[in-house]
Amino acid sequence: METKIFQSDQIEEAAALLRNGELVAFPTETVYGLGANALLAESVKQVFAVKGRPSDNPLIVHVANFSMTEEFVESYHPLTETIIKHFWPGPLTLIFKIKTGSLSPVVTGGLSTAAFRMPDNKKTLSLIGKTGAPLVGPSANTSGKPSPTTALHVYHDLSGKISGILDDGATEIGVESTVLDLSGDQPTILRPGAVTQEALQEVLGVEVPLDKHLVKESETPKAPGMKYKHYSPETSVLMIKPEDWQKAMEWAKAKDKKVGLLVTPTTANKYTSADCFVFEDDTIEAATRGLFSGLRALDEAKKSDVIFAEVFPEDHLGLAYMNRLKKAAAQNYFSEK
């Protein structure tokens, strides 16, 4: 199969493929998604096959406007209107109870709920509109590997397996959306992202807890990205606390291990390595934007025995960064023990 790269003037062509049941990857402000018509169960099944993803994982349904959700949702949380007004389109996925039979179990993972998002990307909103149906859109990569933040990343993983990729350059945020569960009484964050816990609580005026439960391989998650290990390159990853950098570098030298560094410019100036991915600047925004690209670049270079990754405080956007990094590192920090 030839995988075609679509530009802005070819969105109708890409939409026609989706209407016909084929797979087309699309850009969002977070990461690239692997698109299939959410109303065509056989197409959605292809998504799992192409990604090598367990079919019990629920998928996020991408819509072009809020009214597209009404065909499927049984009931809305009282705070839904406020949330939509402030955060859609944007990097926030909402989980609702749905009408029985309104979506295939292939989409929902057999659950009575489904996840919906309106991405903040004009090309993709146009693509959904021209398709005339919502699109499922898990990250457009091989399952378990770092998510794609450019069309080239998608092409690397899925070339010859999907019909096309709608190109819109590099994504702005770099990690997947926040997932907010609205199927119960209390809004609960199941996956942190760029819409932070603090921002939600400020807008809603209520406590919005973070569910830190990590799902085992045998469990069905309520939202994507809740597995213990995820986003992982082939090369092992260790998280390095600020006070441990010198000891970690000395340990690697003593063990004759080639180290790849995933770091800020400040840390890169202190420690050297033949294989190094440096974030654009020292901010958490730059680190989040570069996390998956950096993991991919270091892994594909195949120069390192281990990747040392810089950590950030677990608050605000740092919560999303550390959530992904911990899973990429299988929860492992450097330790001399």
TrEMBL record:
<dbReference type="GO" id="GO:0005524">
    <property type="term" value="F:ATP binding"/>
</dbReference>
<feature type="binding site">
    <location>
        <position position="117"/>
    </location>
    <ligand>
        <name>L-threonine</name>
    </ligand>
</feature>
<dbReference type="Pfam" id="PF03481">
    <property type="entry name" value="Sua5_C"/>
</dbReference>
<feature type="binding site">
    <location>
        <position position="57"/>
    </location>
    <ligand>
        <name>ATP</name>
    </ligand>
</feature>
<feature type="binding site">
    <location>
        <position position="147"/>
    </location>
    <ligand>
        <name>ATP</name>
    </ligand>
</feature>
<feature type="binding site">
    <location>
        <position position="53"/>
    </location>
    <ligand>
        <name>ATP</name>
    </ligand>
</feature>
<dbReference type="InterPro" id="IPR006070">
    <property type="entry name" value="Sua5-like_dom"/>
</dbReference>
<feature type="binding site">
    <location>
        <position position="139"/>
    </location>
    <ligand>
        <name>ATP</name>
    </ligand>
</feature>
<dbReference type="GO" id="GO:0000049">
    <property type="term" value="F:tRNA binding"/>
</dbReference>
<keyword id="KW-0808">Transferase</keyword>
<feature type="binding site">
    <location>
        <position position="30"/>
    </location>
    <ligand>
        <name>L-threonine</name>
    </ligand>
</feature>
<dbReference type="GO" id="GO:0006450">
    <property type="term" value="P:regulation of translational fidelity"/>
</dbReference>
<keyword id="KW-0547">Nucleotide-binding</keyword>
<keyword id="KW-0963">Cytoplasm</keyword>
<feature type="binding site">
    <location>
        <position position="191"/>
    </location>
    <ligand>
        <name>ATP</name>
    </ligand>
</feature>
<keyword id="KW-0067">ATP-binding</keyword>
<dbReference type="GO" id="GO:0005737">
    <property type="term" value="C:cytoplasm"/>
</dbReference>
<dbReference type="GO" id="GO:0003725">
    <property type="term" value="F:double-stranded RNA binding"/>
</dbReference>
<dbReference type="Pfam" id="PF01300">
    <property type="entry name" value="Sua5_yciO_yrdC"/>
</dbReference>
<dbReference type="InterPro" id="IPR010923">
    <property type="entry name" value="T(6)A37_SUA5"/>
</dbReference>
<keyword id="KW-0548">Nucleotidyltransferase</keyword>
<feature type="binding site">
    <location>
        <position position="62"/>
    </location>
    <ligand>
        <name>L-threonine</name>
    </ligand>
</feature>
<dbReference type="InterPro" id="IPR005145">
    <property type="entry name" value="Sua5_C"/>
</dbReference>
<dbReference type="InterPro" id="IPR050156">
    <property type="entry name" value="TC-AMP_synthase_SUA5"/>
</dbReference>
<dbReference type="GO" id="GO:0061710">
    <property type="term" value="F:L-threonylcarbamoyladenylate synthase"/>
</dbReference>
<comment type="function">
    <text>Required for the formation of a threonylcarbamoyl group on adenosine at position 37 (t(6)A37) in tRNAs that read codons beginning with adenine.</text>
</comment>
<feature type="binding site">
    <location>
        <position position="177"/>
    </location>
    <ligand>
        <name>L-threonine</name>
    </ligand>
</feature>
<feature type="binding site">
    <location>
        <position position="113"/>
    </location>
    <ligand>
        <name>ATP</name>
    </ligand>
</feature>
<comment type="similarity">
    <text>Belongs to the SUA5 family.</text>
</comment>
<keyword id="KW-0819">tRNA processing</keyword>
<dbReference type="GO" id="GO:0008033">
    <property type="term" value="P:tRNA processing"/>
</dbReference>
<dbReference type="InterPro" id="IPR017945">
    <property type="entry name" value="DHBP_synth_RibB-like_a/b_dom"/>
</dbReference>
<protein>
    <recommendedName>
        <fullName>Threonylcarbamoyl-AMP synthase</fullName>
        <ecNumber>2.7.7.87</ecNumber>
    </recommendedName>
</protein>
<dbReference type="InterPro" id="IPR038385">
    <property type="entry name" value="Sua5/YwlC_C"/>
</dbReference>
<feature type="domain" description="YrdC-like">
    <location>
        <begin position="8"/>
        <end position="195"/>
    </location>
</feature>
<feature type="binding site">
    <location>
        <position position="231"/>
    </location>
    <ligand>
        <name>ATP</name>
    </ligand>
</feature>
